[in-house]
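ok so for the tutorial part 2 we go from a plain amino acid sequence to predicted structure tokens. step 1 is just haveing the sequence, like this:
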Amino acid sequence: MHYWLSPVQEENVKLAEELGRSRDEVTSHQKLEEERSVLNNQLLEMKKRESALKKEIEERASLQKSISVTSALITEKDEELEKLRNEVSF
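step 2 — the prediction. this is what the tokens look like for a chain of 90 residues:
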């Protein structure tokens, strides 16, 4: 038996194939959108962490400066105390 398709059937087959490709493209596009969404969420999380780390670094720098100032004041007071002790001993 010889199998042949009418022009309408051939067109139908072509359209069905096209539809299949279109569905594949839509599925692929949806997957890419999902991946993009996941990556955007990861980026937002990284930006939040970066912001928190910058704040922590600023706080540490401020504490370090405060420690330096306090240390300098202690040294100054120690020198004053030593001076006063020397004056009292004479």
